[in-house]
From TrEMBL:
<dbReference type="InterPro" id="IPR001543">
    <property type="entry name" value="FliN-like_C"/>
</dbReference>
<dbReference type="GO" id="GO:0071978">
    <property type="term" value="P:bacterial-type flagellum-dependent swarming motility"/>
</dbReference>
<keyword id="KW-0975">Bacterial flagellum</keyword>
<keyword id="KW-0472">Membrane</keyword>
<dbReference type="GO" id="GO:0005886">
    <property type="term" value="C:plasma membrane"/>
</dbReference>
<keyword id="KW-0283">Flagellar rotation</keyword>
<dbReference type="GO" id="GO:0009425">
    <property type="term" value="C:bacterial-type flagellum basal body"/>
</dbReference>
<keyword id="KW-0966">Cell projection</keyword>
<keyword id="KW-1003">Cell membrane</keyword>
<dbReference type="GO" id="GO:0050918">
    <property type="term" value="P:positive chemotaxis"/>
</dbReference>
<keyword id="KW-0282">Flagellum</keyword>
<keyword id="KW-0145">Chemotaxis</keyword>
<keyword id="KW-0969">Cilium</keyword>
<dbReference type="InterPro" id="IPR028976">
    <property type="entry name" value="CheC-like_sf"/>
</dbReference>
<comment type="similarity">
    <text>Belongs to the FliM family.</text>
</comment>
<dbReference type="InterPro" id="IPR036429">
    <property type="entry name" value="SpoA-like_sf"/>
</dbReference>
<dbReference type="InterPro" id="IPR001689">
    <property type="entry name" value="Flag_FliM"/>
</dbReference>
């Protein structure tokens, strides 16, 4: 459904003019080049800006990645789903483009009003069904209707897939998709007015050796309350969420429970490799520090305090004397 699509009336008028000799193909091309005023078709009202279309594209690219992982696990087969196009067209035009005996999920997305459609091409739908029922994933698109068992199997599959849609939309709106019905005939769809503008997201889907399209149809009335959230500015702000007080307290508690090594250095010295190789038990090393000098205490690898060695009961211990100057600069 990518690119500009002519309505049926426009196609009929163009073919009629060419067939009667009133206009040739070259005339139509020249007329388009010289026309300075563009005609506006109120049946194809453009209610979404390019910025908002780009945001919807990003949302459903994420949804396509999540859906690829989900269907791969459920069908135990190679699955690849990618966004092909995001268009705004009249609802009537979308219904005409749907093949017969396709699989259509109608679902609500509270707290938003209205319904969203997910249309699965017969090749893909029946390939999924064949895999779920133990087959090889062959496509049997000549099925006239679904049995109760087949309907239940496909309903369960798509209801579980809605978790991915919820996750993809979470930066824009907190939605809770609920499946309303599973339809196989597009002629029975009376969801909105035929001239209502809808967003159609087309997903190219490959399952094993079978390919087809999954189309998601979102009416303007559903998106209207959250249209401001589709701007790039809101999108960037939503990706830099502030942590709540509870999250901050939880993070502080976990950091405080982290373990850190504390090391006290008695001193250091330099020796040659030859002396190191001949070193034996009982040899004495002269350190670069006097006995009465304070010792350096390191937390991790950073020097933090000075201290003095001693004992507590039968265990060796170190008493902290002072913090080292400039130690806070290394935190």
């Amino acid at each position: 459904m990518a690119g500009d699509v002519l309505s049926q009336s426009e196609i009929d008028a163009l073919l009629s003019a060419i067939s009667t000799g009133e206009m040739t193909a070259e005339d139509a091309k020249k007329d388009e080049e010289t026309r300075k005023v563009k005609s506006y078709d109120f049946k194809r009202a453009l209610r979404f800006s390019k910025d908002q279309i780009r945001s919807l594209t990003r949302i459903h690219e994420n949804f396509a990645r999540l859906l690829t992982t989900f269907f791969s696990a459920q069908l135990r087969n190679y699955v690849q789903i990618t966004v092909v196009s995001v268009d705004q067209i009249p609802f009537e035009e979308f219904v005409r483009s749907i093949p017969n005996m396709t699989l259509i999920n109608v679902f609500e997305v509270p707290p938003l009003d209205g319904n969203i459609l997910m249309e699965i091409h017969p090749n893909i739908a029946y390939s999924m069904m064949d895999r779920l029922m133990g087959g090889t994933g062959g496509s049997y698109s000549n099925v006239d209707n679904l049995t109760e068992i087949e309907t239940k199997i496909m309903t369960n599959l798509f209801e579980r897939s809605f978790d991915n849609l919820r996750e993809a939309w979470e930066n824009v709106a907190e939605i809770d998709p609920i499946l309303v019905e599973l339809e196989v005939n597009p002629q029975f769809l009376q969801m909105i007015s035929p001239n209502e503008t809808v967003i159609v997201i087309s997903l190219n889907t490959i399952i094993g050796d079978t390919s087809g399209m999954i189309n998601i149809c979102i009416p303007h009335v559903v998106l209207e309350p959250i249209v401001p959230n589709l701007s790039v500015r809101y999108w960037m702000q939503s990706n830099t969420k502030q942590m709540s007080d509870e999250q901050i307290r939880t993070l502080e508690g976990r950091v405080k429970q982290a373990s850190l090594p504390v090391v006290t250095e008695l001193g250091a010295t330099d020796i040659s490799v030859q002396d190191f190789l001949t070193m034996q038990i009982g040899d004495v090393l002269q350190l670069n520090q006097k006995i009465e000098d304070p010792l350096t205490i390191k937390v991790g690898t950073l020097p933090k305090f000075t201290g003095q060695a001693g004992k507590v009961g039968k265990k060796m211990a170190v008493q902290i004397l002072d913090p080292l100057k400039g130690a806070d600069e290394h935190e």
